[in-house]
Amino acid sequence: MTRARAVSTPAIISLAALAALGAAAYGYAEFGGWNAEGAGAAARYTARFSFPIFVAAWSASALATLWPGGWRSVMLRRRRAIGLSFAAAHFVHLAALSIAVLMFAAQPSAKTIYGGGFTYVLIAAMALTSNNWSVRALAPGNWKMLHTFGGLAIAIVFTVSYLGRLETKPWLAVPALALLGGAALLKLLAWMKQRVLRAA
């Protein structure tokens, strides 16, 4: 038997962006088309779509460190594609949110504007440096610092966002916060394992 050819990174990113556009279109369709309610739903659904992609990218290294081999190692090898897929999907969310604000007068909080804006700068920087040339140009240590800080900032923004929905949408917030907490725990355990291995 011949080994199946891996799906290319551009194809994975394109699929993620198209799926996010589909989530936005569903939001508009659910509320009858081009209106404020549809724009708000499009923004919410695209954020919810990109969230698990981020968790997968953020936890890939920790999973492969704690349990090497199998699908964990496959995730680690494709982490760049997963991360870029998150960036593509989340920029679709930014477009949906911008439409809600600029065309339908949605009123985002200052926390959303400044915290989210800063995080999008980091997402753009991480996406633009997700290539071998950037790793060499920045030096591996600086590159890792950018991506570690960026991943943590994104995780914090999602955490704050879902904490704000605990009272109104616990069915959404509790699983999301559990996923984030689990990913953070995995990263801590992986860091501890690496420390032990280096000290041995």
Largest sheet: none
Query: What's the total helix number?
Result: 8
The average pLDDT value, as a whole number, equals 94
Low-confidence stretches: none
Structural classification = mainly alpha
Q: What is the rounded distance between the termini?
A: 42 Å
Task: Compute the CA-based radius of gyration.
Answer: 18 Å
As a percent range, the share of strand residues is: under 5%
Number of strands: 0
Q: What spatial form do the alpha-carbon principal axes imply?
A: globular
Along the chain, the helix and strand elements come as: HHHHHHHH
Total count of domains: 1
Helix content: over 70%
Task: Tell me about this structure.
This protein has about 200 residues and is mainly alpha-helical. It has one domain. It has eight helices and no strands. It has helices at about 10-30, 35-65, 70-75, 80-100, 110-130, 130-140, 140-165, 170-200. Helix 1 (about 10-30) packs parallel to helix 4 and helix 5 runs antiparallel to helix 7 (about 140-165). About 25% of the residues are buried. The mean pLDDT is about 95.
